[in-house]
Amino acid sequence: MAWSYARRRQRVLIVSSHPLFGQGLRSLLQERVAPTAEVVGLAATTDEAAKALKALAPDIVIVDYDDQAVNREEFLAYFVESAGPMRVVLVSLKETGPAVVYDRRTLAVSQVEEWLGGITAMAYPSHEAPKAAAGRANRRHLVIVGVLIVVVTVVVSLLLDQIGLLPVAASAQAGVIDRLFNLHFKVISFLFALVVVFLLYSVVVFRRKPGDTEDGDHFEGHTGLEIAWTILPLATVLYFAYLGAQALADTRKVDPQAMVVNVTAVQWSWSYDYPDYGVTSTSLNLPVNKQVLLKLTSTDVIHSFWVPEFRVKQDALPGKDLVKELRLTPTVLGAYKVRCAELCGRQHAYMESPVVVMNQADFDAWIAKESVVSDNPVERGKKWAAQFGCDACHSIDGTLKVGPSWKGLYGKQETLADGTTATADDAYLRESIVAPNAKVVQGFAAGVMPPDFGQRMTEEQITDVIEYIKSLK
Fold first, then answer.
1. What is the pTM (predicted TM-score) of this model?
2. Percentage of the chain exceeding pLDDT 70
3. In this predicted model, which residue has the larger pLDDT, 94 or 39?
4. CA–CA distance, 264 with 464 (Å, rounded to integer)
5. Residue 135: predicted pLDDT
6. Of the given ranges (88-102, 112-126, 322-336, 373-387), which has the lowest mean pLDDT?
7. What pLDDT does 5 receive?
8. Residue-range domains of the chain with CATH
9. Predicted confidence band at 103 (pLDDT cuts at 50, 70, 90)?
10. Handedness of CA 374, 379, 380, 382 (dihedral sign)
């Protein structure tokens, strides 16, 4: 199929006080781009050029760069302020002189030879126009890049699925959150492919060829593309915000039959109180497929309750009036682990406790067992020590932790921080529990042990703990 293009003739104004420059350039243009270029005027001074710009409305203005009679600064200033989609070319006949195009639409700079080639508009009777060919080439590149982006997105998404970025989902809330996570992973895969494919394709296909020293093509802005890359990310963010709000609502759905567990965090242990059963434990035991309402508080600093397999987490704040709530419904039988997700001191990394999800019959049996109170004060003291987190700071095998070891402590002469000594008898141990900063053992820091154990523990519990310490000979 034959193609034919018609373009109106380019009106050219030449500005130079040298007649040979104007005549030679007129001949060059007529020989090179005729019949598409028409010299409509010659101006010898800046004032003549300004008048010609207004009267003749040329498409192209060619200025003699070496002509001292033409004030280029004044001319360009007038040119920038004037209206119309014209271009100005500054041409030098010297070997080292500039040949620069000033485009009024963008004030962009390109080589004059490229510009002259760009305004050449001949008839193409039997072959495709360069612009059409370039358009098809660009579309071909976009199709190739689009296919590569899809392929890389799928491959990266499958790899992320195979890696297993998330632990096993063991709660009803985990399913809601995982759906949101997986959608994020797919979007991340797409964005990774979008950046990497465009980058590598450009580096490989559009790299500078050996020996090519020319400037690259000038590209102007693309309004549609700019609108797209503003609106689409904004819409994506808003959509994910909606999904996040919906997921939050789903994870906080209230079951009126939920079992309540009071969770107390202390440096550096967890304690769980089951008020409906009168049981306190250092491990969190939960019946499967039953919603649990955790009421969290802290006795010292901010902690954060987190079981990765349950996905949800919540801070535990110090203060009786700052009780935080967290709802979860275990769905998979097994043993898990509570971790503190808030940096809370030197033993933060070891602030863990077991979580056991069991069937209802096993849970009932565990409650019955824990409800039995031993007649042995040593056994009770061991239980209270674990419940109140004493073993987080005091060992029973001689190992030094944050506080002195309890092994062989009773009856021992302790050297205090002020250089005095004290015997670790019943009175000393009781004072160390209710007023831990009254006598600080040498080599250990003051103010580490919470000062409120006297309010949190009953007299019977304190006595039982002392009996337990006595037994550790």
1. 0.57
2. 83
3. 39
4. 21
5. 65
6. 112-126
7. 36
8. 10-119 (3.40.50.2300), 130-209+224-251 (no CATH), 259-371 (2.60.40.420), 377-471 (1.10.760.10)
9. very low
10. negative
Q: What is residue 462's predicted lDDT score, i.e. its pLDDT?
A: 85
- Let me know the angle formed at the C-alpha of 303 by 299 and 308, rounded to the nearest 5 degrees: 140
